[in-house]
Amino acid sequence: MFSVLRPHRFKLALLLLAANFGLLLHLASGELKPIAEWVWLDILGEGGSALLALVWLGLVLKSRPAGRVTNYLVLGLGCIFFSWWIDSLDEFIRLPDSITWDHWLESGPMPLGMILLTLGIYHWHREQLAINGQMEKRERLFREHRLFDKLTPLGGADFLKHELSASLEDSRRRQQPLSLLALDLDNFTAINQRFGHGEGDAVLQAISQLLVLNLRRQDLLCRLAGDRFVVLLPDTGESQARRLALELEIAVRSLAHKTRQHGERLQLAASTAVVMAFDESPDALLKRLNLALAQSRTTLAKSA
Amino acid sequence: MTLKTCWYETDSRFIPGHYQPAALIDLALSRDIDSHRLLRGTGLFHDDILAGQSRISPQQFLGLIDNSRRLLDASDSSFLFGQRLLPGHYGPASHALRHAQNLHQALQTLIDQQALLSPLAAPRLLLDEHYAYVHWLDSCGADEQWRFVLEASMTSMVAMSAWLSGERLPWQCSFRHGEPRYVEQYWVHLGEHTQFDRPLDLMRLPRHCLAQPWPNVSATAGQVARIEARDQLDQLGFASSFLDCLYDYLHAHVQQTPSLEQTAQAFAMSPATLKRKLHKHHTGFQQQVDRVHTHVALYLYQVKGFSNEEVAQYLRFNDTANFRRSFKRWTGSTPNLIRQLLMLG
């Protein structure tokens, strides 16, 4: 938690100082209102807003790496918090009418904060576009972070099923073929047994990067389970899908993955299977794909 | 049949923390789960486990499983855990597994050393003309963790036999629960022919696979490891759980159908104590009797090829109609339907 705050410690200290300074200034030049004069609705509204601004600030800091965009957002939210904070102070402290600086303190930081926040959000948007570019072939128009795989930067089985039903619908409407490709690493258990499960995880991460590089723009790669990956291939017939599958097999075989501990080269190989979608449910299609993969593996074992 | 007077219960602290629990802890830590949150409420401390001194009860282990399931929040947790379970690093018992000459010997070792190798789920081996069946029983009343334990146990068997034999064996698994949302995990880790809504938690493979010799095995090392493992069990003072002992007793006396009082007497305790112990394991006496009846009936159908009348007669039912009613109560299904389900795939 504290490591998240570390790069922002000066900004946060400044905010704390400013808030304190405002409080002291009010106390020095005004007098406390008796409780009977407190207007609870205003206290709740203005104080609550200030507190919420602080919560937003915390969430932004916790969810983003430090950097230019984060600085804009933090400064913007800091100004907004400050202005709401001063606003809520006069619910408790009465200032004499001769004093006008409180008005400046209250309303001055607000437009500045809004401008900074707007700048921050605008750059956040640009940043997101750049990230979307990087996420191409791993997600489409739909995003649901709960469906992301925990190990590889890919969608999991549920994400695949969601996208698959949408794509099936789409291909049916446009009268275009849709194919699915499954890829399963050979002897993956042996890697886990021999080099440890950490190495197995590293292999899966490397393979997922490799497969992304070998796909077309419109394809979608997901990790189904364990060492089995599934690629959704829109507008693709069975023969073209087979060609892609072969390319992926070759790519996996020529990947010179090195173990993390001793830099030893691992010989990897994969089996693939391809099915073209008929008029069927996503679940039935996935089942057929996996049976086809089991089939191709047994014929492989027999011929070996 | 001689009755073992000693067994372990769900609150017996005997599972070394650095055995099976460590496999789960390592999995969680590799996914960046905080160790304090992982062990919260289990009464365990990571430092004690690392020192190799902690002994935990099945109940605590199940608590750890509950925490891991929630924190990992992924449908492959049980399967990844299962892959790490066998042969494992559990002293001589693991050695004995590692140097088993074939699957049959490995299964025999697993069954003999169950308290050390698989304390939460007890495997039973059944054979018929064509198939070998491994039937898994809930040893400690795992309750809502049972599915996790079962997935892990079956995966451990599939993964171990694949590794030690050097090839993926044609296991077929069947489960009592319905098809889960994450069925693809079953396909990848247990095989594409996994079936659900079946009468038993069972895995089977062609019988000839049992005797196929395994490579890279030292017969002498295996022999010695088995003796050492037996010594370790002797020191522990028990080889199976209370529920499993009760199951064996009821199974051996299935034709007499012993009452609660008779059973309590055979276990040298009062009926109230027996009831209390069963309650502690989230079960009851009638539930256990019904379970044994179901298993015996299914065994007679499948392996002996008995008819309804013969099974009813064997279990001492007065008439077949009565038996069919009882069977419906045990399994929620009629004998004929179950017989169709038994013919897996």
TrEMBL record, chain A:
GO BP annotation list: cell adhesion involved in single-species biofilm formation; negative regulation of bacterial-type flagellum-dependent cell motility
Key words, A-Z: Membrane, Transmembrane, Transmembrane helix
Sequence intervals crossing the membrane: 40-62, 69-87
Pfam families linked: GGDEF (PF00990)
Enzyme class: transferase
Catalytic activity: 2 GTP = 3',3'-c-di-GMP + 2 diphosphate
SUPFAM superfamilies cross-referenced by the UniProt entry: Nucleotide cyclase
EC number: 2.7.7.65
Molecular function in Gene Ontology: diguanylate cyclase activity
InterPro entries named in the record: Diguanylate_Cyclase, GGDEF_dom, Nucleotide_cyclase, Rev_trsase/Diguanyl_cyclase
Gene3D superfamilies (UniProt xref): 3.30.70.270
A Gene Ontology term for the protein's cellular component: plasma membrane
Keyword Plastid: no
Location of the GGDEF domain: 176-304
PANTHER family given in the database record: DIGUANYLATE CYCLASE DGCM-RELATED, REGULATORY COMPONENTS OF SENSORY TRANSDUCTION SYSTEM
NCBIfam families to which the protein is assigned, alphabetical: GGDEF
Protein name, UniProt field: diguanylate cyclase
UniProtKB/TrEMBL annotation, chain B:
PROSITE patterns registered for this protein in UniProt: HTH_ARAC_FAMILY_2
UniProt-recorded name of the protein: AraC family transcriptional regulator
GO cellular component, one term: cytosol
GO MF annotations in UniProt: DNA-binding transcription factor activity; transcription cis-regulatory region binding
Pfam families documented for this protein: Arabinose_bd, HTH_18
Alphabetically ordered keywords of this record: DNA-binding, Transcription, Transcription regulation
HTH araC/xylS-type domain: residues covered: 244-341
Family matches, as SUPFAM superfamilies: Homeodomain-like
Signal peptide limits: none
